[in-house]
Design goal:
Largest sheet: 7 strands, mixed
Bound molecules: adenosine-2'-5'-diphosphate, magnesium ion
CATH class of the largest domain: Alpha Beta
Number of helices: 9
Structural class: alpha+beta
Number of strands: 14
Helix content: 25-40%
GO biological process, one term: sulfate assimilation
CATH architecture of the largest domain: 2-Layer Sandwich
Catalytic activity: adenosine 2',5'-bisphosphate + H2O = AMP + phosphate; 3'-phosphoadenylyl sulfate + H2O = adenosine 5'-phosphosulfate + phosphate; adenosine 3',5'-bisphosphate + H2O = AMP + phosphate
InterPro entries: DPNP, Inositol_monoP_metal-BS, Inositol_monoP_superfamily, Inositol_monophosphatase-like
Family: Belongs to the inositol monophosphatase superfamily.
Order of helices and strands: HEEHEHHEHEEEEEEHEHEHEEH
GO molecular function, one term: 3'(2'),5'-bisphosphate nucleotidase activity
């Protein structure tokens, strides 16, 4: 089955959301940030980008369901703080929704100029992301700002969108407004969109372009069997993934390149296009404490769905620390006790990396057997 309409929609929604989040960053004021129940931050950028993407999906594919990170409960409160946040979010989402189409966008299913949505419609669009997930059917998955802490630091973040059909990711798009097109030239042009459709390869385009304006660049993980040439791609935030276990694994593999520490699924884009020193990369995400059923954090599907397809289509393998595939059919998360971290790398070295993970765990007194 071809997913060309879904791909076009997803790229257009992600590009618009990236424009929105970049402009929000420049105008962000302190009281536009909330702290969620899990202590993580959420901004007007997260809410308005989810409203925008969800409204576009609903307009183009009204019967599809959506799993989105954010919900509008805090925006529906009858307080002055809530009212002013709501007004900002509605204005921002409408500004992005009604922007003129760029070359290659299809007027038939874009919302487009003159079609402002009401506040109620946009709050409902955010809450349409409340779907509980599951094994069957077509389901979109939105992380409107992945790496909100990076976003607030003016560092890396990503706007992430995937289409999952019967638990398999079929389309994945990751927009990275602050990522250099060429990581080895950090002062060069910034802003990349990565995209993949299952069976069709992985691609990068500049955020300022669209696939119909300039041909996308096909990207590939470099082939190598020499693990010592690998570059580790790790969370910037040491509370999100263990830097020390990653470093022990890197030593076992003979790695000498320093790790690239970066927020968000931008790491999957860097892995897929071969950033590092030409020897391929490893996305390494292991819990800070506990493992499997005792892990300190349960991974969410929106944090890995598009990245996993990008890696597979660029010639990589993604699994947990036991080598099990990620299961996107268990609900909104990768499953409590079902997922044991995330490890993604080129297919020639994946098995060797898993061997090193096992050894590193053994020396920490942990076992990969299910308790
Ligand atoms: N305690 C945590 N452990 C692991 N990941 C977390 C934790 N808290 C938030 N996250 C999520 O980890 C992702 C950031 O990935 P990375 O660590 O690779 O930069 C984000 O999705 C972030 O949520 P959010 O989307 O709200 O920023
Ligand atoms: Mg968040
Ligand atoms: Mg996220
Ligand atoms: Mg997020």
């Amino acid at each position: 089955m071809s997913y060309s309409k879904e791909k076009e929609l997803a790229i257009s929604a992600v590009r618009r959301a990236c424009g929105l989040t970049s402009s929000v960053f420049n105008r962000l004021v302190q009281n536009e940030k909330l702290v969620k129940g899990d202590k993580s931050p959420v901004t007007v950028g997260d809410f308005s980008a989810q409203a925008l993407i969800s409204a576009m999906i609903h307009h183009a594919f009204p019967s599809d369901v959506i799993v989105g990170e954010e919900d509008a409960a805090d925006l529906r409160l009858d307080t002055s703080e809530s009212t002013s946040l709501r007004e900002r979010i509605v204005a921002l989402a409408n500004e992005a929704l009604t922007q003129p189409l760029v070359d290659g966008e299809t007027a038939e299913w874009e919302i487009g100029p003159g079609k402002e949505q009401t506040s109620a419609e946009l709050l409902d669009a955010i809450d349409r992301g409340n779907y509980e997930g599951g094994r069957t059917g077509r389901m979109w998955c939105i992380d409107p700002i992945d790496g909100t802490k990076g976003f607030l630091r003016a560092d890396q973040y990503a706007v992430c969108l995937a289409l999952i059909v019967d638990s398999i990711v079929q389309v994945g798009v990751i927009g990275c407004p602050n990522l250099p097109l060429d990581l080895s030239n950090p002062s060069g042009e910034r802003g990349c969109i990565f995209f993949a459709v299952r069976g069709e390869g992985a691609f990068q385009i500049p955020i300022t372009s669209s696939p119909s304006i300039s041909p996308p660049t096909k990207i590939q993980i470099p082939l190598t069997s020499d693990t010592s040439k690998l570059t580790f791609l790790e969370s910037f935030e040491s509370a999100h993934a263990s830097h020390s276990t990653a470093s022990a694994i890197a030593s076992l593999l003979g790695v000498t390149n320093p790790p690239i520490r970066m927020d968000s699924q931008a790491k999957y884009g860097c892995l897929a296009r071969g950033d590092g020193n030409g020897g391929g990369g490893v996305y390494m995400r292991l819990p800070v404490s506990g493992l499997g059923p005792t892990a300190s954090y349960i991974e969410k599907i929106w944090d890995h769905a598009p990245g996993s397809l990008l890696v597979e289509e660029a010639g990589g393998i993604i699994s947990d620390a036991r080598g099990h595939p990620l299961d996107f059919g268990l609900g909104r998360t990768l499953g409590k006790g079902e997922n044991w971290g995330v490890i993604a790398t080129g297919k020639d070295v994946h098995a060797k990396v898993l061997e090193a993970v096992k050894k590193a765990f053994e020396s920490e007194g942990k076992t990969l057997a299910k308790a």
